[in-house]
Design a protein that fits this description.
alpha/beta; five-stranded parallel β-sheet; 310 residues; 29% helix
């Protein structure tokens, strides 16, 4: 199993990963986690020689170098301990690291046999004596992924300054899209609160449910009749994880401190439309937007307010 869950921020990609793993009733020792970032390297992922300071029998200090295993190597060793037990390597934010450099020669192992006695094993092997030396089930230095070794990843489609994954890497994973469509449980929308939206600067307001507000934002962001920025700039139901027992003031603070910055920096500043704006024309800076929201004034444009009604 090699799956990447992808979608807009807040759609629940990590939640879907966790649900899949929990549904299998795995113990913590069967799950390995890591998060890619721009400085993450092959050595972090696989392992590296690091200096160790020790005392010899005479009490003198000596420095030795030992191989410190990365998360991939530790997960692979665990997988080979018992092929009947599933092992999951979970990689968050895969597009924030240079996958080609991080995987290196391990990339060769991602091709799996789909049929036959070796179903689930890597189709090809690589030679790596350092990884192989502590795995009893491997003879020599020829490394393959066993069928119980699974990789789950997440990719945020709206990340800025991400590394591009090439087609060869992408096609070795199944890509599961996580929609922005709201999720219900027992006929009730999850993570849903009332949000007060002001229509002018003299106190006229309306209550809008969060699922309606973020849904309208997504349509306004992506639809060519409005901003036309495409799905990459949309957001999900869990972009803000509301404290459902919290007060209105707490919910307002969460929106102010998380949603407004995203809408201004990633949406408003990315728009090339001269005819349509998400925010009221009187707002010309983020500080004005922040203060206006705090002071219960109008922040959204008339066109956006009309689209809520639509």
């Amino acid at each position: 199993m090699q799956i990447i869950y992808y979608g807009a921020p807040g759609t629940g990609k990590s939640y879907n990963v966790d649900e899949l793993v929990l549904s299998m009733g795995l113990g913590e020792e069967q799950i390995f986690r890591t998060t890619f970032h721009p400085e993450y390297s092959y050595n972090d992922f696989i392992g590296q020689l690091l200096p160790k300071v020790k005392k010899d029998i005479n009490g003198d200090t000596e420095i030795t170098y030992e191989f410190t295993k990365g998360v991939f190597t530790r997960a692979l060793e665990k997988a080979y301990e018992d092929i009947s037990k599933k092992i999951f390597l979970i990689i968050e934010e895969m597009s924030r690291g240079d996958c080609a450099a991080i995987f290196g020669d391990i990339f060769q192992l991602l091709d799996r046999e789909s049929n036959g006695l070796n179903k689930g094993y890597s189709r090809y092997f690589i030679n790596n004596e350092i990884i192989a030396k502590d795995i009893i089930a491997i003879s020599g230095d020829k490394i393959k992924l066993p069928p119980n070794f699974n990789i789950l990843g997440t990719v945020n489609t709206s990340d800025q300054n991400v590394f591009v994954m090439d087609t060869a890497f992408k096609r070795r994973f199944e890509w599961h899209y996580i929609s922005t469509k709201p999720v219900m449980e027992n006929n009730v929308y999850l993570n849903n609160v009332d949000v007060e939206i002001y229509e002018d600067n003299v106190g006229t307001s309306r209550n809008v449910e969060w699922v309606d507000l973020y849904g309208t934002l997504n349509r306004f962001i992506s639809d060519s009749r409005y901003l036309g920025l495409g799905e990459d700039k949309q957001l999900g139901q869990f972009f803000i994880e509301f404290n459902m027992s919290g007060s209105y003031a707490e919910h307002k603070d969460q929106i102010k401190n998380k949603l407004l910055h995203y809408l201004w920096s990633d949406v408003h500043n990315s728009s090339y439309s001269n005819d349509t704006s998400l925010f009221d024309s009187a707002i010309t800076s983020f500080s004005e937007l922040y203060d206006s929201f705090e002071d219960d004034k109008k922040i959204f444009s008339d066109k956006f307010l009309e689209s809520i009604d639509a």
